[in-house]
Amino acid sequence: MASYFPSFMVQNPWAFWALLALLVPLILHLLSKRRAKLIKFANVALITMPELKNSQQIRLNQFWLLLLRMLLLIVSILLLAKVSLNEALISHEEVYLLSADWLNHSDKNERQQLIVNSSNKPIYLLGQHTALINADEILTWQAPLTQPQAQNNLLALKVFTALLTPETKLKLFVTDRANQYRVNDKNTRLVLANTIDWQVKRTFPEHQKHYNNVMNVVIIYDQDRFADLKYFQQALNLIKQHIAPKLSLSSFLNVELENSVSYQQTMLINPHWLFYLSSKAIDNTVSNAIENGTNVIVDGHVGGKVDGNVTAEKPELNLMPDKRLVVDKDSSDLLSAEAVFYRRAQALAFAEQLKSNLISQTDEVLWQVTQKNGAALPLLTKSSLSFYPQTSGDTVKVESDVYQLHSRFSPAWSNLLVSKQFPLLLQNLLFSSWQNVQRQAQQTLSQKQISQLVVTDKNASLLAAKNLTTPRLKNITTLNVQQPAKRNDYTELLMVLLLLLLIVERIVSEVSRTNKTTEKVADNKTGGARVRSAKAAG
Predict the structure, then answer these.
(1) Nearest in space to 154 (alpha carbons), one of 442, 454, 440
(2) What is the spatial order of strands in the sheet that 131-132 belongs to?
């Protein structure tokens, strides 16, 4: 016999703290004093005085009115919590489950065959918000023009199966792209209670040749670095021609930048990357850009600082080794060939010039060389910075990277600029995240490898069945599964109930108040009669 168990969904669980307000009407009713019952009698002299009870004794007064008011509070709290009921799927039923990536790579014939084979069984679209999908939506599905971000199928599967009975079988249609299957760092496999029939479609992902987003690059340089600027311009133009057609390059001489309208307007949009080929201390404009997410690459300087500017040379900061400093390409993800450096210098420090809204700083050495005495010298370091947002109301922290080269981007200092790998070096720096996504998109798994990531455990099935014996209370923020056909929202019902309770409470309260007034009037009349009887007797 088919059976199902409900799952209660609560959108605002914090609202249940308001249940403490139920104590207020309870305390008020307990502390209220009941009036003595008025009894009419002709001859008050014949009445014997009863033993007086303690007037401070706590008694529950007007029980039904108290109950109504507490019900009003409970219904109001349920409305605030936004409680709904999601029915679990029927036991022993087979459910079809599709990933968006399968739909993107399938043709019309495959989708039509899927609908025919489903035999009117429920079909769900797997995702962060798993929901029912009908035949028309499947047949008219359109793949996005740009490559979508890969979703974690295993995480979505774990969330969705929380609504199923252990006996429910899943027929899962997915692709073989490896970036869709991630468990976590602690567990290598996902343990589920349901049996899964894997339908893995083989894909041939196309490499996205061009970076189609906007990329804004700014170069700030000193007058003596004009020749070095030309190498950057040539390399970035090659990148724009072959990789990033929307790359925008602007260069500014580091002289009176505060009076340059073009410079101020360019920096106002917070460029994605800034190459700082200067020995001068950064200005507030650069500092603000870094704190708003601009990544910076800065190289070394050859002198000491006076009032923030380099004026006096310090030769001891520069090393002229007996041998050339060589960075092995195998020790770096940025290099395609060995890099040779002839001189080394102290990099311009940025961190101390930033404002106090710096949250954290993490430093790592990307390139280093070893001297004859065994001492390691850093050549390229990376500082990952986190800042408090400058925009009020924004709670997401801002992150930026500062790369510091302990040499110079100059032919007199290294062979980087004159070699063919310089454009590749800039490409790896500017588009490392995009390239990682591209590489991950090319990785695939076999059906056996995918199915081994999920294990059907008998004990897990028993535990799941035990959990289904009672209604489950779940937070909708962690269980984002939509079941339009099986979801009952009680908002309208609760609103009607709240209105009815409010009307009844007002009626009962008014009746109670009228009775009290009648008793008071009768008491006053009786009191007057007793006074008149006493006068007549006297």
Answers:
(1) 454
(2) 131-132, 123-126, 94-99, 169-175, 196-201
Reported as half-sphere exposure (CB side, CA atoms, 13 A), residue 2 has a value of 9
The CATH fold of domain 89-205+444-467: Rossmann fold (3.40.50)
d(CA 83, CA 488): 9
Q: Count other C-beta atoms under 10 Å from residue 430's C-beta.
A: 22
Please state, in angstroms and rounded to a whole number, the distance separating the CA atoms of residues 418 and 145. Answer: 38
CA dist list (Å): 154 to 186, 439, 455, 474: 14, 20, 11, 20
Least confident of 298-312, 345-359, 379-393, 421-435: 298-312
Could you report the per-residue pLDDT of 253-301, keeping only the tens digit for each? 998 888 899 999 999 989 999 999 998 888 889 988 998 899 999 998 7
Domain range summary for the chain, segments of one domain joined by +: 6-85+491-537, 89-205+444-467, 216-441
> What's the CA gap between 289 and 34, in Å, rounded?
72
Burial class of residue 160 in the structure, from the number of CB atoms within 10 Å of its CB (0-12 exposed, 13-18 middle, 19+ buried): buried
For the sheet containing 487-489, what is the strand order? 472-475, 6-10, 83-87, 487-489
The Cα 474–Cα 462 span in angstroms is 20
Q: Which of 402, 401, 423, 405 is nearest to 414 (CA)?
A: 405
Q: What is residue 84's predicted lDDT score, i.e. its pLDDT?
A: 65
CA distance 37 to 157: 68
pLDDT above 90 covers what percent of the chain? 26
Task: Report the alpha-carbon distance of residue 426 to residue 274 in Å, rounded.
Answer: 12
The DSSP H or E segment spanning 156 is helix 153-161
Measured CA to CA, the distance from residue 287 to residue 289 in angstroms comes to 5
CA dist 506 and 68 (Å) reads 10
Q: Crossing angle, helix 284-291 and helix 261-268, to 10 degrees? A: 10
What does the pLDDT look like over 83-96, one tens digit per residue? 766 555 555 588 99
